[in-house]
Each structure stands twice: as C-alpha cells, then as structure tokens.
C-alpha cells in the first residue's frame, strides 16, 4: 500500500477549457489526482454522492447556483477543503472575499494561457494551493519543481553596519493558506493607535486590492494595498500587492515601502522572506516579526534574520493554524521566540505601541 496516497481533487467550473487546463496542471503533480470535473454545483453534488474528494476547486460565477451558495451548503453539511478559482475582476472581488468568510481555504486565479511565464507561475500557484488545502484544518507542486529561489534573488544580505538611531516601531507579518481570515482576526483587534504594519499574504494579482478594501471597512486601523514609496505610519497596515515583492526601507528615522517585480522567492511573489529580510535591515531591534498560518517555509529564514538583528518574533501556534507549515519551519530554525494563539497576536501587536513593552513576555 502506498504510504502517501494521492490527494483527490474535484474541479467545478462552467468553462470546459478551464476544467481541462486545471485538470492537466493538477494531474502533472505526483501527489495529486483529479477524480472528476463538474460544470455546476448540481452536477458536483451528484458526483459527491459517489465519491468524496480531499479538495474541491470551485468557481464562483456559474449557472443554476453560484459557488458561494454551494460553498455555504457544503460547509453546513459536510466540510471539505475548498479552493476558490476565479478571475476576480471588478466589484466581484467582494463576492470572492465573501467566499473566504464562508469557509474557502484559499483563492487562486484562473490560469492565463497568453504567456509561458504566466502559465508556469500559475501552475506553481495552483498546485501549491491545492496541496496546502488538502492539509488544512477545517472549522464548523510540479512533478519536477523549478529551482527554489531565496530572498537573495530580490534583496542581497546586508553587511553588519551601524544603523541610524530611531525609536519608531514597525510590525512585519507573513501569512499564506488560511491567512486571509487569520489576518482579519488580528487586525480587527487593533485600535487606531496601533504601530505601523506591513503584510505579505500570499495572494495572486487582482485579489489584494479588494482584500485590503474589505479589511479597511472592518477595522479601526486603515488598511490598503501598498504602492511603492508609501510611508509606513501608525494606525495603518499596508498589504503587498499580489504578484509583486514588497520591502521595508528607511529614510532617516522614517519607514517607507518599496514595491518591485522579481522572480518567485520560495515559490511566491510576494515573498514573506523578502519582506522579513528588508525589515531586519531597515528596522533591526525596533521591529516585531509575526509568522502565521501557511504551507511551506517562506518566511522562516527572513524571520531568523530579524531575530538575529534584535527584533522580537512570534509565531502562530499549531492549534490555531489552518496549516501549521510556515510557523513550524520558523520554529525549527530558531526564528520564533514565542508561539501564541491567533487570538493573542493582535493584543501583542497593540502592546508594541507602548515603547519598551516586552511583547514576548507571557502574561
């Protein structure tokens, strides 16, 4: 018997081309098996009566029943990991974010066949998202993967030099699978005087602007998608735009962000490692690094660099993670000073607003 059976996937999308393309992408991975496809939720329900998959890849806009309604019914009757696959254009973004609130594990963008690079990166993103979903806790890669780049591909390690003095605090957060809802939990607990926050959440292009807008409506602090040159200010969270890396920079005692293109780092763009390394270089001991739910090891090395530079570091604990991958890898490297429950992360960030507070001390 195979000790590691393949994860079985059902694809639900009204486009035959999309069904075929995603089937080919997933079937190319040695750990994934497509057990069937359906062109709408009713056909999917018939399939589910015969065989239950490990993951469902679900479109939103379909005839007869939309994907969000189907998702809510699934979660109410028999929860299963669901990955939303959509183009996410225009005002539809609100609907897709509602799908996350309804219980979807992750969002992926429909593959674009127009360029080879886009298709290759879509393949990585889709395979990784489905594999991560298969390992997700629910609440009531390619067969020959490409070379895995580190943050060196975007930002060179800095020589140890004296850093200009500043007392300005900054918080850097990295998350992946399950992070959209986890970030909402954290940010909604913050007051308007919270320290400045920079965030990398693994999401594809066109998703992050709507995600930031939704959080901005729900939170006391200001939340928006970052643009290069933005000031990093108290009471504000900047989220890296999908498809681009984000770095923290310093101008005197003031922080800004730089947004740039570059290769995938740890199979992601934006990469948590890139953000964390830049934070270590720009903020040193004045930073707090937070690594949250997600599959893989993006962020582990960068968080260790932050801790080595004197920053305080925390990781989300296993019990509150949807996927305990990134925090576990960071813990193994010695990057995490203290693991805490998701519900404690917001209050710890708020404590950082008080200069000199020991945010890692157990209360």
TrEMBL record:
Enzyme active site: 176, 202, 298
Subcellular location: Cytoplasm
CDD domains per UniProt: CheB_Rec, REC_CheB-like
EC numbers on record: 3.1.1.61, 3.5.1.44
Cited InterPro entries: CheB-like (IPR008248), CheB_C (IPR035909), CheY-like_superfamily (IPR011006), Sig_transdc_resp-reg_Me-estase (IPR000673), Sig_transdc_resp-reg_receiver (IPR001789)
KW Phosphoprotein (keyword) present: yes
PTM: Phosphorylated by CheA. Phosphorylation of the N-terminal regulatory domain activates the methylesterase activity.
Keyword Hydrolase: yes
Principal location class: cytoplasm
Pfam families: CheB_methylest, Response_reg
Start and end residues of each Response regulatory domain: 8-125
Span of domain CheB-type methylesterase: 164-356
Reactions performed catalytically: [protein]-L-glutamate 5-O-methyl ester + H2O = L-glutamyl-[protein] + methanol + H(+); L-glutaminyl-[protein] + H2O = L-glutamyl-[protein] + NH4(+)
Domain of life assignment: Bacteria
Positions where 4-aspartylphosphate occurs in the chain: 59
Keyword annotations: Chemotaxis, Cytoplasm, Hydrolase, Phosphoprotein
Entry's Gene Ontology molecular function annotations: protein-glutamate methylesterase activity
HAMAP family, per the entry: CheB_chemtxs (MF_00099)
Domain text: Contains a C-terminal catalytic domain, and an N-terminal region which modulates catalytic activity.
Functional note: Involved in chemotaxis. Part of a chemotaxis signal transduction system that modulates chemotaxis in response to various stimuli. Catalyzes the demethylation of specific methylglutamate residues introduced into the chemoreceptors (methyl-accepting chemotaxis proteins or MCP) by CheR. Also mediates the irreversible deamidation of specific glutamine residues to glutamic acid.
Family statement drawn from the similarity comment of this UniProt entry: Belongs to the CheB family.
Name listed for the protein in its UniProt record: Protein-glutamate methylesterase/protein-glutamine glutaminase
Source organism of the structure: Paracoccus rhizosphaerae
